[in-house]
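In the design runs reported in the main text, the only information available to the sequence generator was the tokenized backbone. The following block is the verbatim input for one such run; it is reproduced so that readers can re-run the procedure and compare outputs position by position.
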């Protein structure tokens, strides 16, 4: 997916799930600067996040990889059509739900994963 361009005029809706406020706020702060992204929510609790995923149907859910709970993965398997990106700050990797893994070196790497 290297070199994937952001489609002009396409807005991606993003929900952030992290029990770590510093992680959640940091990701939100970085993504708010990116064109074509709308942060539709940020949750610290899995139950509330699952409710918001059902209600808001975001295009992408970004999860601190330590917060990958069976409840969240279960709702995504129901076919809501939401892409899940798990970020691991310890080794700077991201896992895209369904097994894709990449090294994250810059915010642009995360943005590319959202759009592609």
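Verbatim output:
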């Amino acid at each position: 997916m290297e070199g994937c361009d952001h489609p002009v005029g396409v807005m991606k809706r993003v929900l952030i799930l992290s029990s770590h406020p510093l992680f959640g706020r940091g990701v939100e702060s970085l993504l708010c600067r990116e064109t074509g992204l709308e942060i539709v929510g940020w949750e610290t609790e899995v139950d509330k996040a699952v409710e918001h995923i059902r209600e808001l149907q975001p295009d992408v859910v970004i999860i601190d990889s330590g917060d990958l709970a069976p409840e969240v993965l279960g709702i995504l398997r129901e076919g809501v059509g939401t892409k899940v990106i798990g970020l691991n700050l310890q080794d700077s990797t991201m896992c895209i739900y369904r097994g894709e893994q990449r090294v994250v070196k810059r915010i642009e790497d995360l943005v590319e994963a959202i759009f592609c």
